[in-house]
User: Fold PA14 domain-containing protein from Phocaeicola dorei CL02T12C06.
Amino acid sequence: MRNRILYLFASLVILSGCGNQPAYKNSNLSPEERAEDLLQQLTLEEKVALMMDNSKPVERLGIKPYNWWNEALHGVARSGLATVFPQPIGMAASFEPDAIHTIYTAVSDEARAKNTAYSAAGSYERYQGLTMWTPTVNIYRDPRWGRGIETYGEDPYLTSVMGVNVVKGLQCTDANQKYDKIHACAKHFAVHSGPEWNRHEFNAENIKPRDLHETYLVPFEALVKEGKVKEVMCAYNRLEGDPCCGSDRLLMQILRQEWGYEGIVLSDCGAIDDFYREKGHKTHPDAESASAAAVLSGTDLECGSSYKALVESAKKGLISEKDIDVSVKRLLKARFELGEMDDPSKVEWTKIPYSVVCSAEHDSLSLDIARKSMTLLLNKNNILPLKRGGQTIAVMGPNANDSVMQWGNYNGTPKHTITLLEGIRSAMGENDKLIYEQGCSWVERSLIRSVFNQCTSKEGPGFSARYWNNKEYEGNAAATAQLTTPFRLCTSGATVFAPGVNLTDFSAIYQSVFTPQETGEVIFNFYSCGATQLLINGEEVKKFTNKHGGRGQAYAMHAEAGKPYDIEIRFQYFSGDAQLNFDLGFKEEVNIKNTVAKVKDADIVIFAGGISPSLEGEEMGVNLPGFRKGDRTDIELPAVQRELIKALCDAGKKVIFVNFSGSPIAMEPETKYCQAILQAWYPGQSGGKAAAEVLFGDYNPAGRLPVTFYRNIAQLPDFEDYNMTGRTYRYFKGDPLFPFGYGLSYTTFNYDNIKLEQTIKVGETAKMVIPVTNTGNRDGEEVVQVYLKKQEDTEGPTKTLRAFKRVQIPAGKTVNVELELTPKQLEWWDAQTNTMRTIAGNFDIMVGGNSKDAELQVKTLTLQ
Assistant:
């Protein structure tokens, strides 16, 4: 206490010439100085309240509330209207770092504009702040991992380059402004890539030091050292017995001591609870000991509420207030760096107009990167590009007309989404004819036939709706409405559920009487974000809450023809964008024979298949064949799709398969049944247009696979084995279906003799010139890839990417592609020191258009 009094007295003396203004309010001082001053004026209870993601205000000191949790995985997420870019795994397929930097600069513009609008309205809720919890730079080591779709692939170097450009685009550190624009976050640190079903108790153990430092830590080190990332999120799982958010080895030794990281470490949401909860790691007895251990290990900020116990932890002597101060100071410093504590008019970034959100310029960027992500995997007899004029084209499959699928996960809501069906319709010639027949769902052997038109309320056809501007259905209704079509309600883009209804903190009741015209099982389908109840004849039959974005839910009921059923749906706003989609209908079994007959006149069938973010993703409640908790238990194309494609092939149809997925699909049978395969990923708001442009040749594809596409699950090691043996192109010894770095073009390229100085000294840069000729008859882009292998190393990777460049080459022209391998890019594992460093020896430099050995030129580079 005596020291605190002396410090406050000194501060007053120093600032006596500033009208006794507290130092922390003086914007001329550094964020460090301001944070130190403010820290000394906080009570222990106030400090602890600032250490959770939903930070409470300290009104006596003018500290506003701040919610640290915001998302921008591929566009500002869960905050209403926003430009939706392709899922990161798709953007990685572009092999275009400059485009990634441009995109995330646009994303940070939208984030700043939104934050300015929210702050002006006095709103400081989740998904409204300036700390964006992205990018995900975990290595996509196994195609079964559901969250691999959020990553930049299986290669450490590609992930590092893309991740650094995400961070630099978001943070705009080169802008030389007084305040930071946005703070990015590298997640999830570290050795984290599934399974989703046991992530809260899983222990990644027996990790070889080489795998840890050569594979799993590489992107994080790049984001810390090159990207200057401001936040790092620790993972749910344990590493060698210690929860990652309580790992001295990860957070103190590697991150802070070895790498010199000075920013914030935050926990994944609920990760501290996992230290002590029954279905968690159970490494600690209670919240007091868990929270103290996490802070002492370097976790400054908790997403959750366990840190409330830190006050008691300090009283029990489990942690000192001085140790808590270390974390609180980092948090305060970050808020000062962002200008969040200051008058918005003084912060240059607040002048970004709201008109940037979903602007035409950003829409153009989304289309451009969607085009660049399109990856052509098969093109028999050059069936693509399709010719226009006089053809009948059938568009089929579960993803042909699904806009939500294209948004991926951790997404915003665009003004408009161009589905593949819409894109093809627009791209066809005047004399072409289009047939649309969905044919099947993703996995199930049934489709839902809507019977919403068999619902009638007292007010008329459909459902009557009553809304309250509170979450408790209390008082007089704020609005009423009649819904005559299936619900499509969402507050994204500041769109209210009905005129007069709040965007937040509201509730609703929807009522109708369903009188079925036939007997059978009726499915009540929901896709919602909020708290939802379904009551039938006054009895609650289904209740669920989705907290973080929309999720699907369903309820099945046996219905008898002519019997009336009172239907009531209750909805309460929870957080973020409220969403309620609803329909009901009878299941109809897929009839492949009848479906094929419906497209008998088609010359070409474009089958939009694959899977969906509603099946693969983060810890989901999916219980369908081939899926578990968002992970996949099988990597094959779902059987119902495979059977329909085969039937179309057997009927003599030319099938163009457009695969939408975030993970590699084992498509070996499809390479026999289909004439062409286009990997479209989850391509964002303009994905349908981009795919159609590729199919019709308006855009020459140049996407390349950032992950290996295996032939079948038999080629994969145990999912829970984190050693790299047999994993990814770097250690896989088999024959993949499509190798890492692979992708076709509508033209061809030839590599001439590489120019490379074959002997350099350790610490020097190897420069090379690679002549590449476009030997076809149309302009195109080639992704030149450079792989490295130490000749004497028999235990290391067979090759590993260390440089690449996407190059535009006119038809018939040769471009001399200049690339270099810096000392950092030439680093290799040194078993004697257990480090990655540049060492002497002979290296294979392998250059080509993908990672397949037969298509790579090899030169020897000697480091002396």
